[in-house]
Amino acid sequence: MAQSHAPAATHEHDDHDHKPRGWRRWVYATNHKDIGTMYLVFACTMFFIGGAMAMVIRLELFKPGLQFVDPQFFNSMTTMHALIMIFGAVMPAWTGLANWMVPMQVGAPDMALPRLNNFSFWILPFAFTLLLSSLFVPGGAPAGGWTMYPPLILQTGASFPMLIFSIHLMGASSILGAINIVVTILNMRAPGLTLLRMPLFVWTWLITGYLLIAVMPVLAGAVTMLLTDHFFGTTFFTAAGGGDPVMFQHIFWFFGHPEVYILILPAFGIISEVVPTFSRKPLFGYEAMVYAVASIAFLSFIVWAHHMFTVGMPLAAQLFFMLSTMLIAVPTGVKVFNWTATMWKGSLSFEPPMLFALAFLFLFTIGGFSGLMLAIVPADYQYQDTYFVVAHFHYVLVPGSIFAIMAGVYYWLPKWTGHMYDMRLATWHFWLSTIFVNVLFFPQHFLGLAGMPRRIPDYAVQFTDWNMVSSIGGFGFGLAQFLFPYIIWKCVRGGARIGNRAWEGAHGLEWELPSPPPYHSWTTPPSDAVIARGAEH
Amino acid sequence: MIRATAPSLALLAASVPLALGARADSGWSELNMTPGVTEMSKKIYDLHMLIFWVCVGIAVIVFGAMIWSIVTYRKSKGAVPDVTLVHNTKVEFIWTVVPVFILIAMAVPAARTLVEIEDTTKTELTIKVTGYQWGWQYDYLDDGVQYYSHLDRQSDAARELLSGIDPNSVPHYLLNVDHPLVVPVATKVRLLITGADVIHSWWVPAFGVKKDAIPGFVNEAWFKVDADKPGLYRGQCAELCGRDHGFMPIVVDVRSKADFAAWLKEKATEQKQAAAAPAPSAS
What we know:
The structure holds 2 protein chains of 2 kinds.
Chain A lengths: L22 H5 L4 H29 L10 H36 L7 H20 L26 H28 L12 H32 L13 H35 L6 H14 L15 H13 L1 H15 L8 H24 L1 H7 L3 H31 L5 H28 L13 H17 L2 H11 L34 H7 L3
Chain B lengths: L1 H19 L18 H34 L16 H29 L7 E8 L2 E6 L4 E5 L3 H6 L22 E4 L4 E7 L4 E5 L4 E5 L5 E5 L7 E7 L12 E6 L1 H20 L7
Parallel strand pairs in B: 1-5, 4-10
Antiparallel strand pairs in B: 1-2, 2-3, 5-8, 6-7, 6-9, 9-10
Helix pairs in contact in B: 2-3
């Protein structure tokens, strides 16, 4: 990159960005900020597509009887809704936030492997075009649940290979992205930024990266076995051929349980940044928070069969998985207590990031309680495959992961754009989301306890009232989400100019940079003094 | 302004179903698990309520602390942050160790109940249950009685897309079958559960029994209905099994021992005669 003039001193911003214009900037992107933006825009799009499917589900479930869709199509909607939300919305959103923030937070100029970064992103639009096209092939989209249990999943029609290959593609994207993030964190931290001085968001992504590398290949193995069972005469999961359908469940959930921690650990990181900022107080128990995340990640590998308590497991196995699952409550509890202690004797203000973080604290904790109930095996016999489970995981995923993503976006959007967004609108977005998310999901606890199974398009009449309430909550929540991209778009276009530190109590290397940061930031590493200021915890 | 209108939005949302009118049993009161009609289902219910109240107790403390902070330590009220409050070894020790003790207190009764549930010895009657797409087959192995059990006709007609039939006009909509499973009261009944095609799951909430029906495998479950609780008990398939997963319910007809014995004898004779009778002519 030839310079046509010699800069007099080292600039933090590069006057000649040398970034290509037009579509080439995005298709050939190697800049972590551009790639981060693409991941986030992609994730937001997928969130609305997955959300539309949820609206179809709640519309059919509004009253008993079938009014709108065929049961097979309904099963496709539940299947695709989950696949899109998990692999298309939440995971790419976390990767997008990691791309934007990790290099800036560790004082690095970019990710370790920028071209791999580009590849990791661009796999995704292809993967999801493949998956979404399956709606239009004979037999329709896959309808065997996102968990894809055989033998049922092997009854999928023409969309079966599309399902398997899109999962392979998404998995490859995740693995490569995770490698990039882990290598960046381990190798490219500014001198003086030791591991135990890193922001919690970076810590949670370091650990999440290891989880991804460990378990995405397991999912790939499981779905490849489905593929060969379907097309090449193997019988991995067919008892008649000496195989075992339950083995699929073990392999899938060995991936699946760490996967749900992949979905939540970065959220813990976001909350650990937002709460201290808006409490104007350092995070309580920084080291305990790191050890708690590490323990949760470790434990996540030895609890998988709690998704399978009714398959007919030996007593000893049921006892082991019950105890290991209950144990996760301890480090998770420590984290909730530490966030609360951070607010205790702080000086709180309630801007949108803090509002979403507070909703997370209350509502994720409720999801944690239902999770603890599910761990009790004899009780789980009554909860398994009912709406009680649906309520649990939606509480930890929606006011859990999704609200934390929104908190992160509302926290860092001023940094990315240099403008403050419309806080009044963002506060409306918050209140409408929080109220409707509870109207939508809280009654599902009742439905499950009263005996309503999951994955059914129609139900007995005693489930009418709470289904109606839940559906109204769904419509309200869905409508409220249109505010989000509007607020972001409006902010990108303009708004009150802000300086380096958008929020009074914010600490971290990203707040030492201008807003917006230069296209290439930290081209020289931050000094010890700057690191010390940023790493105040 | 925003805070004043937000709660009223919630009230508005909540009032819509009330305005739509509540029927006698449309579900507002359907809030909790049933204690059921077996000793095991009651133990399960007790475990459920125990863990529920433990969670409520913890929630009161934790949410109380959060709400206290939100109300008391506000910048707008002039609160000054105590930036040195980042550690408290005593408190941290307590809130790590006390939860462990609470978990042990939960795990002990849970493990005891689980051991009891897994004890399938000394059963008095064995029935094979096979899950199909989309119905159940019941086979009284020792008596040569077997039959299929499908969603009953009225429900089946009403559930068709845009059938025009109001589900509320159908008795036990989606929870009624043509041929229920018949069992005697106060008898330890063992079920051998398997699947014919894909994985299903046999679940009757009133018994506290749910077990997957897996092709190629035989799972065991048992229940013993309390002596004073004969009657009809309803359940559903609890594992996604295809298009009509929601339309293959379970009905168990629990009869007195004498009634059951009579029914079984009659059924056995009927089926023996049907098997012996010459096949209808002309093909």
